[in-house]
């Protein structure tokens, strides 16, 4: 697991998230390389240094009213200057990576970590992402913002929406993904 620069999350909006009783910290699975397979090496090794992805903190948000369809994932990312495309601007692939990480983490919480894959990922860029900076990637089930998502327990597909924002109202990108539960091998 990389050295995390958790002090980067001392901004007031980050502190409010860290102190939120509905947000339960969970391990960031993609920051640990599985040595036997190399799984997770992109975010846990290649992009884990003080100039790229300096720190990641993940939270599972349980709804105030018990309903598995309104659960969310919050991921704080501290981005360094090494994630730039053009000068001072985060590369679009990093934004897509953060969305995929947050949405994939929610899918793993819903379906189980070892039997899901991303079937599609659509990203819409809204505004320039200046770097270095701390951002929040959020993921939630489609329909959850309107008061309830689709029933997913018996389904093989899960549609998830996400946003990359600054925690103060600015949205850099939003996205939609479909995750598929793999069939068991016979």
Note down, in words, how this protein is organized.
This protein has helices at residues 12-18, 41-46, 92-111, and strands at 23-26, 53-61, 72-79, 116-125, 133-141, 157-165, 171-181. The chain has 186 residues and is of the alpha+beta class. A 7-stranded antiparallel beta sheet has the order 1-2-3-5-6-7-4, sandwiched between helices. The longest helix is centred in the middle third of the chain and has 20 residues, at 92-111. The model is unreliable at 144-152 (pLDDT under 50).
Properties at a glance:
seven-stranded antiparallel β-sheet, alpha+beta, globular, 186 residues, 18% helix
The low-pLDDT segments are 144-152
Q: Name the shape in a single word.
A: globular
According to DSSP, the number of beta strands is: 7
Alpha carbon gyration radius: 16 Å
Run of helices and strands: HEHEEHEEEE
The overall average pLDDT, rounded, is: 85
Helical percentage: 10-25%
Structural class, by secondary structure, is alpha+beta
Count every helix, treating DSSP H or I runs of 4 or more residues as helices: 3
Q: Specify the oligomeric state.
A: single chain
Main beta sheet: 7 strands, antiparallel
Q: Could you tell me how far the N terminus lies from the C terminus, measured between alpha carbons in angstroms?
A: 35 Å
